[in-house]
Each structure stands twice: as C-alpha cells, then as structure tokens.
What does this fold into?
Amino acid sequence: MNLIKNVTFDEIRIGDSATLVRTLSSKDIDLFAIVSGDVNPAHVDEEFANSDLFHKVIAHGMWGGALISNLLGTELPGPGTIYVSQSLKFLQPIGIGDTVTVVVKVVGKNEEKHHVMLDCSIINQSETVVITGHAEVLAPTAKISRERIILPEAELHVKGRRYQQLIALTNHMKPIRTAVVHPVDAVSLIGAIEAARQELIIPILIGPEEKIRHVAALENIDLSSYEIMPTEHSEAAALLAVELARAGKVDAIMKGSLHTDELMRAVVDPRIGLRTARRMSHVFAIDAPNYPRALFITDAALNVDPNLEEKRDIVQNAIDLVHALGIPEPKVAILSAVETVNSNIVSTLHAAALCKMAERGQITGAILDGPLAFDNAVSLEAAKTKGIVSAVAGVADIFVVPDMESGNMLAKQLEYLADAEIAGIVLGARVPIILTSRADKTMARLGSCAIALLLARNAAASKVA
It folds into this structure.
C-alpha cells in the first residue's frame, strides 16, 4: 500500500532533508492559472511571453512555492505539518520542459513551540538554483500514516479548440465574399466583423442600415471598411442575399438576426432560390469536451421527417463536408433507439437500407453502420458490452439522426448539458449557408465561417481539377 508517513518533531534532526523532482508542462501552467486565477500573460499568452523579458512562457513563481509546500506536507515533516511562514527569492524563471529538483533541509528547531526551520531551494536540470527560501512550520508530535490519495486525472478542455483547428486550416486562403443577412443585433454583427478580422469572410451587410449602424455604435464597431446594402426589412435582406448568390457576387450566405425559416424560404424558392440537384440539408459541427474528435450531427435543422431518398442526400452531403475539412474516410453512425433492425421502428429500416446503399456505391466516401443506438455510436465499451462488432461503433465522426426533432434535441443537449460549442452549415445549395442560432456565441460563428470558407475553396479546386 502506498502510504504517506510523517516525521515527528522529536524524530527530526538538524540536517535532515527531502527532495522531489518535477518537470514543468504547459498543462501545469494552465491548471495553476485556473486554480489561482492568475492569468498574467507572461504565463498564459505565448505571443506576449515571446516578446517579454525571458522570451518564453514561464511558470508562475508560486508554482515553485507549491512544490515546496508539497514536500513539507507529504515528506518532511509530512502529514500534520502546519505552515507558519515562508519566504522565497526568485532567481531564474522555470520554463516549459525544465526539470527541477526541490530540496528542503532542516536548519533549526524550537523545542518550546515545536517549530522546525528549513532551508528551501529549487534547482533546474542545469544545476542552476532558480528559487531559494526559508520555511518555518509547526511539526506534528504524533505519528501519522495515511494511504496516499490518488488524484483524478485532470483533462483540460479549451472551448472552441476544434474550431481553432478549422480556422488554422484556412491559413493562406483568401476570404470569401459573404452576404450577412439582417445583422441587426450585437451577436450577429460582432460575429461577422470578427470573422472578417480573422480573414475568413469579406462581409456584405444586408438589412436596415439605420439598425445596423445603431448596433455598431453601441458596440464601438467601425463599419467604414465594410459594404452595407440597405433593405427595408429582414425578408428583403434574405431575397437580396439569394439574388447576389445566384449572380455569383457572393460565395456564401450568413444568417443574422432573423428566423431560419424566413431565410430558407428565399433559399429554397423554386423560381429564385439556390436549389441544386442535391437535396439541401443542415450539419451541426460540434466541439464536445468529452468526445475525442470533431462530431457532426445531421439533419437537425432543415429536413423535418426525411424519407430514405432524402436521407441518402443528407448522408452524402455530410460526407462531402468532412472531406473538405480534411477527414478522408469518415465513419458514419446511422442512429436509432436500438441497434437491431425492427420493422416497427422506421429509422432502423432506413439505417439498414442506407448501409446497403453504401455497399452498392449509392453513397460514397465513408464507412457506414447502423442502426446504432447513441451509446454504441460514441462508446467502444458500450458497443463491446452489447457484443457489437463494428468499424464505426465508438469512433463515429458523423451522426445521422432519424428526424429533425431528435437531432435538434441531441445537439442542444450537448450544448447546454455537456458544454459543447456548436457551429452550423447548410449544404446542397449553390453556395454554403452559414446557419447559426441567434443564441450562438462568436466562436461558433467563426467555426461556421471557417467551414464555409473550406467548402467554397474545396468546391473551386474541384471545378479546376
């Protein structure tokens, strides 16, 4: 058994010492910043740190102090120790990858108070002393032996990390001209302008000019660099955006502060809309903290109750999307309530048929399996427990839901109960349609814009080829 044992005041001798060795990682810095709230850019902002005194990210000074505290509380004197005072001098920084040795050495005892005085030092791998100090503690007088507590493994989740990866894929790509429809609230206008600043889109702001400028003034946004095309109301803005897309004057459309059905009425209009031979469908690109890869849910916003032929297009649209995002052979889980075919559950029949269509080449570019219950699609352990042998179970990239209701509930549950970020895009139209929720934050909007840019440039490259 791994025990923590102390050394009592009577057992301690002048000259006694203890050591521990630790290598600093970026995760250590992030965790210390989270616990302490210390976001000094010298520790957490690489760009700033590279231009600062030491030209690199360095540990918080008190990270070293915490290591000394660790040694005093677990080794010498150990459990039962109470801090009285600690002084430290910081001589050199500790950088990521540095391996440090922490040493505490007894230099004095106070018999009356049971206090112990210790010299403290931290030395790096180059034998350079980086921290020195002096500690005074109240030492325990009774023997203590406790089982060492095994701490949980900390997993850091940086919100929007998947979207940052998508944005990185757009480096050196020219931004796409994007019709931003009715950006008359702060969230939609800020999202569009921030996407422009990150060179994802060139926004054309379409809507009531007075309202757009009013929001810009409230949010201190300078619109002098951006084109505004005034319209009387949101319906007119949607129609104008579609007209620009049909004429090839914009490469994408971005939803602002209007209802989805209002925008999509113009998009699907058989006379003036943006239909193609492929049925339009929606994909949620989801960054879920506890899922080890990007997760795509379709269709959760456009097709209410799709039939088999419509689902074929929905699946193929999603596959083509993830190809453009750099996933060459995605794994597609066709979801249902159960993992066996049941004639009373239509979604299981659709799942079986879609898998057979993939075998016959009617759906290409991916590995399909279904029906799969959600737990089997996301968990290898759940699939193993149920005896499911599948190349998709537990490692799915794309989740095809039975209908819009179940898909929308699934996506929103991930957002509000699992702290996921959600970006959205409509596929199968002449141009990508960035279909974000009015409640979406800026990072989700940036992710959607990055997806649209990657789709547009991939489509252009395919035409050239």
User: Anything to note?
Assistant: The first helix runs from residue 26 to 36. The CA atoms of residues 252 and 431 lie 5 Å apart. The chain has 15 helices and 18 strands. The mean pLDDT is 92.
